[in-house]
Design goal:
Strands 1, 14, 15, 16, 19 and 20 form a 6-stranded mixed β-sheet that branches. Strands 2-9-12-11-10-13 form a 6-stranded antiparallel β-barrel. The protein is built from 4 helices and 21 strands. The radius of gyration is 46 Å and the shape is elongated. The chain starts with a helix and ends with a strand. The longest helix is centred in the N-terminal third of the chain and has 36 residues. Helix 2 packs antiparallel against helix 3. With about 400 residues, it is of the alpha+beta class. It has 4 domains: about 90 residues, conserved putative lor/sdh protein from methanococcus maripaludis s2 fold (Beta Barrel), CATH 2.40.420.20; about 100 residues, Efflux pump adaptor protein, beta barrel domain (Elongation Factor Tu (Ef-tu), domain 3); about 55 residues, Beta Barrel (OB fold (Dihydrolipoamide Acetyltransferase, E2P)); about 80 residues, Helix hairpin bin (Helix Hairpins, Orthogonal Bundle), CATH 1.10.287.470.
Length: about 400
């Protein structure tokens, strides 16, 4: 009986405790409701002046090429150069047997002497007949014939001198010389070979390698877009660096000397739809050789208020459009569709869809969606470059 009373008392106390606890919960402070703000890493976008560069493919071409051909016919008497070595402008390369040309020169010199002697005789006769004509000692016909003979002698002298000059030129041409300075190729003839004036086969080729040209190709669409950007003011000309060109070699190394943009073609190649730009580079070490492939960076212009967005903060929607998440003034997430121009390093150059001063989310993207409440915290920014190469 005593045990039953004790058990009943304990049960009553437990019921009272439960009731009291429920009452306290009903009358206590209400608990917080709704989702908690998600912490995200953001960067505050800033505009900056950006020098845009474009990388173009190209081929290296010689500055000058001279194919050595004989201008007179004859037997090659000697070769005066070492194959593969440098030769200077005016340096003798071959000697063609000059005996025939020396003989022709001697004949022409004799013809000049004969013409000069004939002039002296005819001039004296014409002068004498002129005085005799005054006293009518000779007829007018005799004087006219003497004067004509004198003038014919003068013309004969001019002809003889021209033939002498031609003979001297042919003798000089027997010494085949280089018209330019450069590196000479192997010889296509040996001593004793018969060569002909203006033959189609070159005796050798001299190539000037310093300076040297790099011919670049740019699509006509890119050129048109660039001209429109300059015309509308979206790009401005960088006068200090507009003609500077930087060259990247086939192995990925950067060529140590900078080049200068020379000109751009005014016509489009119909087979490729591209135009050619020519740059000139110093080549004192002869690193660059004709036919080599290279890539060159040229300056397109300057964007005064460029917006760069890290690629890790940009994704694609179902339409393939680039999108980004930003934090609005209410600390809510907004999705933006962007218009991008190109990649620059690890960033996108954005032309529309976002502006300076907005907070771009780059960390915690997997935990949010548009409309989510967030707690933004500044993340490390890598947007510090002002001169960039377009990809």
């Amino acid at each position: 009986m005593l045990r039953s009373r004790i058990a009943l008392s304990l049960f009553s106390a437990l019921v009272a405790l439960v009731a009291l606890t429920g009452c306290e919960q009903a009358t206590g402070q209400p608990q917080a409701s709704g989702p908690q703000a998600v912490p995200v890493g953001v960067i505050t976008l800033k505009s900056q002046a950006l020098t845009l560069k474009k990388e173009l493919p190209g081929r290296i071409n010689a500055f000058q090429i001279a194919e050595i051909r004989p201008q007179v016919s004859g037997i090659v008497q000697s070769r005066l150069f070492t194959e593969g070595k440098r030769v200077e402008k005016g340096e003798s390369l071959y000697q063609i047997n000059p005996d025939t040309f020396k003989a022709q020169l001697a004949v022409s010199e004799a013809a000049v002497a004969s013409a000069q002697a004939s002039i002296a005789s005819s001039k004296s006769k014409a002068t004498r007949f002129k005085e005799l004509l005054k006293i009518q000692a000779v007829s007018q016909l005799d004087f006219d014939e003497a004067d004509a003979a004198y003038k014919q002698a003068l013309a004969a002298l001019l002809t003889a001198k021209a033939q002498l000059q031609t003979a001297q030129i042919n003798l000089d041409y027997s010494h085949v010389s280089s018209p330019i300075s450069g590196q000479i190729s192997k010889s296509s003839v040996t001593v004793g070979a018969l060569v002909s004036a203006n033959q189609s086969t070159a005796l050798a080729t001299v190539t000037q390698l310093d300076p040297i040209y790099v011919d670049l190709t740019q699509s006509s669409n890119e050129l048109t877009r660039l001209k429109k950007a300059l015309a509308t003011g979206a790009l401005t000309v960088d006068a200090a660096n507009q003609t500077d060109v930087e060259l990247t070699m086939e192995d990925g190394s950067v060529y140590p000397h900078k080049g200068t943009l020379q000109f751009s073609e005014v016509t489009v190649d119909p087979s490729t739809g591209s135009v050619t730009l020519r740059a000139q580079f110093p080549n004192p070490e002869n690193f660059l050789l004709p036919g080599m492939y290279a890539r060159a960076s040229i300056v397109e212009g300057v964007v005064s208020d460029a917006i760069l967005v890290p690629q890790r903060g940009v994704s694609r929607n179902s339409k393939g459009e680039p999108t980004a998440m930003v934090v609005n003034k209410d600390n809510k997430v907004e999705s933006r569709v962007l218009q991008v121009d190109r990649t620059i390093g690890s960033n996108w150059l954005v032309t529309n869809g976002i502006k300076a001063g907005e907070k771009l989310i780059i960390e915690g993207l997997q935990k949010i969606r548009p409309g989510s409440a967030v707690a933004p915290e500044e993340a490390e920014s890598t947007l510090h470059s002002t001169t960039n190469k377009a990809q």
